Amino acid sequence: MTGLEPGTGATPARDAADAAAAPPAEDPASFAGDADAFQRLWTPHRMVYIDGADKPTDAGEQRCPFCTVPRRSDVDGLVVARGALAYVVLNLYPYNPGHLMVVPYRHVAGYPELTTPEVAEIGSLTQGAMRVLRATSAPTGFNLGVNQGQTGGAGIAAHLHQHVVPRWGGDANFMPIVAGTKPLPQLLGATRDALAAAWAEHSGSDAVARPAGTET
Length: 216
Prior knowledge:
By secondary structure, the protein is an alpha+beta fold. It has one domain (41-202): HIT family, subunit A. It contains seven helices and five strands, in the order ααααβββαββαα. The protein has a five-stranded antiparallel sheet. It is globular. The chain starts with 11 loop residues before the first helix and ends in a 14-residue tail after the last helix. Residues 1-29 are annotated as: Disordered. This is HIT family protein.
């Protein structure tokens, strides 16, 4: 008796040794490809949106979600705070928990089309959003940015919006690509409530936030 499995040339002991030596599935070494200096924040859950679900097919204000959200209640629209010229809202398809967007009320596509007061308020609200996120969830970094045009990566190119994405060490992991899942530990409504409740104390902004239960 040799202990060989028929037709394989392998033994149970060798199989066990190979399994012990193999890197875990989440380890980059277990995938094909040349290593580089980039981190990748895998977001396959966003394919629902990228593929067209709930995405307006025209650029008109009547179909634009960034134009309709301000007409809803803060709770229903996931609005965290409202300024005079722009507002802060949770992203419905977040890259990370607490992913916010700062959006002008005016239906405008390009950054150069913003007025000087709009630019100033978007900047102020971005600072406020970062302060509130730091106070509520202690991220160790942020990604800030505006995707201009469809070729620039904008999901809704007709209405400018700036992303504020909180980052933590280890959030660019392989869980989403292995399991097809992006872990989000808190429901969006609960995240909105927590951020709105902290806005007045931590944002340093005059924008109005309505915590849960305070809307009229």
